[in-house]
Design brief:
Elements lengths: L2 H23 L8 H5 L2 H4 L1 H10 L8 E9 L5 E9 L6 H11 L3 H5 L12 E6 L4 E5 L8 H19 L4 E5 L2 E2 L2 E2 L4 E2 L12
Parallel strand pairs: 4-5
Antiparallel strand pairs: 1-2, 3-4, 5-6, 7-8
Helix pairs in contact: 5-7
Length: 200
């Protein structure tokens, strides 16, 4: 093969390579993407569907239940005031009622002459609700100060509030011990709590 033939063959090879390159690799209709084109279409959209499932989860419905809390009116008589228990936020509307009793009355209720004999320092140590009974454990501040009449009133507030918000027997504990006697005056309490718990 002479020089001219070799040169012609080289030019032919160059032209062939250039033709293949521009025909297949530069054509607009050909894109080599082995990852995307080999995945099923449904897998490509899966992350978006999962994201929609997470963001579209329904919120827990807010259902309000009226609970009653007992405070004293301007004449010293125990009267119920209403609170709205949000069942989506509160694990127990009975527990919510006791919490509201400890902090009652509200500013508006105070302006209307309502008062409470429950000492402000009283803390709820625990409220245990079972299928057969409920235990309310309060701090010792509940039985301190105010005299005999004040102690009777605060116990009646607790009894009336508890019985208005459950049909189960409720037992009062002070610092983890059942409160059969309460206050420095030694007031006897019959358990479970009832309207007759303070009767002699």
């Amino acid at each position: 093969m002479n020089f001219s033939q070799k040169l012609g063959l080289f030019i032919l090879i160059v032209i062939s390579v250039a033709y293949v390159y521009f025909s297949f690799f530069k054509a607009e209709g050909f894109h080599f993407n082995p990852v995307k084109n080999t995945l099923p279409e449904e897998l490509e959209t899966l992350p978006e569907e999962l994201e929609n499932q997470n963001t579209d989860m329904p919120e827990k419905e807010h259902v309000y239940k009226t609970v009653k809390v007992y405070v004293s009116d301007s004449n010293g008589k125990l009267r119920p005031v209403n609170r709205q228990c949000d069942t989506a936020l509160e694990k127990s509307c009975f527990e919510y009622a006791i919490k509201e009793l400890i902090t009652a009355p509200t500013k508006w209720e105070k302006s209307k002459g309502f008062t409470s004999e429950i000492p402000p320092a009283t803390k709820i140590l625990s409220i245990r609700e079972g299928s057969q009974s409920i235990m309310v454990d309060l701090s010792s501040a509940f039985e301190g100060g105010g005299g005999t009449e004040s102690t009777y009133t605060r116990v009646r507030q607790l009894i009336k509030t508890a019985k208005a918000n459950t049909n189960l027997p409720v037992y009062l504990y002070i610092n983890g011990r059942q409160a059969d006697v309460i206050g420095g005056e030694g007031i006897m309490i019959k358990q479970p709590l009832s309207e007759r718990s303070l009767d002699d």
